[in-house]
Amino acid sequence: MPACEYKSDCHTLVQITDSHLFASPDESLLGLPTGESLKAVVELVRAEQQNVDLILATGDVSQDASVAAYRRFVELTGPIGAPMRWLPGNHDDARTQLACSAGQDWMQAVTDLPGWRVLFLDSAVPGRVHGYLAPEQLDLLEQALGSAGERHVLVCLHHHPVPTGSTWLDAIGLRNADEFFAVLDRFAGVRAVLWGHIHQEVDRVRKGVRLLASPSTCIQFAPASSDFALDTQLPGYRWLRLYPDGRIETAVSRLQQLDYTIDYSGSGY
C-alpha cells in the first residue's frame, strides 16, 4: 500500500468502525470476542501504517453503550498513537459517549488538517436502528461546507446514505438521504463520504464524490442478502491517504487469520 513520501505530501487516516465492544472483556458477539478482534485489527494497523494523522471511529463503538466499553475502545486503539474522533451509531448512547469524551476533542464535529476538512455527522436516532440527520445536523453540514474555503472535505457518518443491495440493511439506512445529498451537491469541495454500519466494503462514485464503507472490526455482513446473514471475510479496517490536490487513495485491509469460531447461523446481533 502506498505511503506518503514526505509528511507534507498527504494525510494518513484510519477508519476503525463497528467494534461492538462490551463492558466485560469476556463478552462475545456471535462467538467472536469483539475486544480481541479489535486488538488484532489495531496490531494490523500498527504493522501497516506509519504516522497516522487521525483515527475515524464511525459508530457502534460499543454494543451495550457502557462507560466501560468506551474506555476499552480508547485503551485498545491507543497503541496506534494518533488523535481520534468518534461518532455514535445505533448501538451507542451519544450522551454516554460525550461524557466519556470529557476534556477531550473526540466528539469534535469539524477537524481541519492542512488542505482538508473532516466533518463528523450524528445520524443516530435514540432507540432506533435506522439513521436520520436531524435539522441541526443538516445545518452543521451546510455551515461546515460553506466555510471550508479552499479545503477539500471528507464527510463521515454512521448510516449508509445509498442502497447496498441488501434488503434488510437498506431498511435501516439513512432515512433522509435525499436531504443529505441536496446539501452535499451544492458544494464542489466534497471529495468523499465515509460510513460504517453495514459491516462490508463499498467503494463507488456519485457525481464525482467517492462513497466509501468499510468492514467491521468484528463480524461481517454478507453482501446482497435479503435477510440477516454473515460473511466469512475477516475483520479489518480502511486506510485513506488525503492529498493536497483533493485526490484520495484508499483500500481495506483485513486480518489473515482469526483464532475464534464465529456462529454463522446467527439470525441477528
Condensed summary:
This protein is of the alpha/beta class and 269 residues long.
Tell me about this structure.
There is one protein chain. By secondary structure, this protein is α/β, with parallel strands linked by helices. The protein has a single domain (11-254), classed as Metallo-dependent phosphatases (Purple Acid Phosphatase, chain A, domain 2), CATH 3.60.21. 21% of the residues lie in helices and 21% in strands. The strands form 2 sheets. It has a 6-stranded mixed β-sheet, covered by helices on one side. The chain has a 5-stranded mixed β-sheet with strand order 3-2-1-10-11, with helices on one face. Helix 1 (34-48) links the parallel strand 1 (11-15) and strand 2 (54-57). Helix 1 (34-48) runs parallel beside helix 2 and helix 4 (135-146) packs parallel to helix 6 (177-184). This is Icc protein.
Short descriptors:
metal ion binding, 6 helices, iron, GpdQ/CpdA-like, hydrolase, 5-stranded mixed β-sheet, 21% strand, alpha/beta, 269 residues
Coarse morphology: globular
Number of helices: 6
> Main sheet: which strands, in order across?
4-5-6-7-9-8
Supply the CATH superfamily name.
Metallo-dependent phosphatases
Biggest β-sheet: count, sense, barrel? 6 strands, mixed
CATH architecture term:
4-Layer Sandwich
Order of helices and strands: EHEHEHEEHEHHEEEEE
CATH class: Alpha Beta
Q: Report the mean per-residue pLDDT as an integer.
A: 95
Q: How many runs of DSSP E, i.e. beta strands?
A: 11
CATH topology: Purple Acid Phosphatase, chain A, domain 2
Count of discrete domains: 1
Low-pLDDT sequence parts: none
Radius of gyration using CA atoms only: 17 Å
Share of helix, binned: 10-25%
Task: Measure the end-to-end span.
Answer: 33 Å
